[in-house]
Amino acid sequence: MIDFLEKVYSIYFMSIDKKKIKAIIFDLDGVIIDSEPWQKKAFEKTLNPYGIKLTHEEFAPLIGIRTIENFIYLKIKYNLKGVPEELTRIKNQHYQQILENKIKPRKGLLPLLNQLFNRYILAVASGSIRQDVFQSLALLDLEKYFQSILTGDDIIKGKPDPEIFIKTSRRIKTHPTHCLVLEDSENGIKAAKQAGMLAVALPTPSTVTHDFSMADLILHDLNELKTIL
């Protein structure tokens, strides 16, 4: 674990040729906004009537996976009476209420977007529901930066399946090998690499224990990316 943490909290270079990058694809949760603590709180509020409180170790593997898929898993694990669709709806209501009061961009995001805006095609590819994604971007006035925004409602299979990244590359008319993905979760990195894209891992305190060995680059924060692109 110590070796892994040292790897995460340093700039880890492999073969990234910035000349071949034409598009940069952002995940939302954990990259644009550091929302995992709020997501955890929304899950806890939903599971509270069942007497379940998720520990950090229990929540960490859920990050980067669509909410409906998480509740299918949690229903089986805890023998929940609620159906996954209804639990997802309740969780989303809790999250939207939290979002309105807590939302703020991840440190370094706005300077980075302003630097990249006129140099690359920018897109969002998030497994979160459409309402959460567009609400988040609207609250921060960020829609203007992105040529494409795809959400969990636009796909059949969530990350680590590469579907959302493949669809994004088609929408922005850019070959996957010319796309660079910014992700904070293991499943996001896996999805990006399976789509044939370059992948930069930006771990948060909630995902620091994820396996980012597939990433082309591991950074501590967004400010470090400004010096590379």
Overview of the structural elements:
- The protein has 229 residues and is an alpha/beta fold.
- It has two domains: 2-34 and 105-226, Rossmann fold (3-Layer(aba) Sandwich), CATH 3.40.50; 36-102, DNA polymerase, domain 1, CATH 1.10.150.
- Helices cover 41% and strands 10% of the residues.
- The protein has a six-stranded parallel sheet, sandwiched between helices.
- Helix 5 (84-102) packs parallel to helix 7.
- Residues 1-14 have low confidence and may be disordered.
Layout of helices and strands, plus pairs?
Elements: H1 2-8, E1 23-26, H2 36-47, H3 56-59, H4 67-78, H5 84-102, H6 109-116, E2 121-125, H7 130-139, E3 148-150, H8 163-171, E4 179-183, H9 186-194, E5 198-201, E6 217-218, H10 222-226
Parallel strand pairs: 1-2, 1-4, 2-3, 4-5, 5-6
Attribute tags:
single chain, 229 residues, alpha/beta, Rossmann fold, DNA polymerase, domain 1, 2 domains, six-stranded parallel beta sheet, 6 strands, 10% strand, globular, disordered N terminus
Task: Assign the CATH topology of the largest domain.
Answer: Rossmann fold
What is the CATH C-level name of the largest domain?
Alpha Beta
What are the low-pLDDT stretches, counting only 5+ consecutive residues below 50? Answer: 1-14
How many helix segments? 10
Question: Any idea what the CATH superfamily of the largest domain is called?
Answer: HAD superfamily/HAD-like
Number of strands: 6
Strand content: 5-15%
The percentage helix is 40-55%
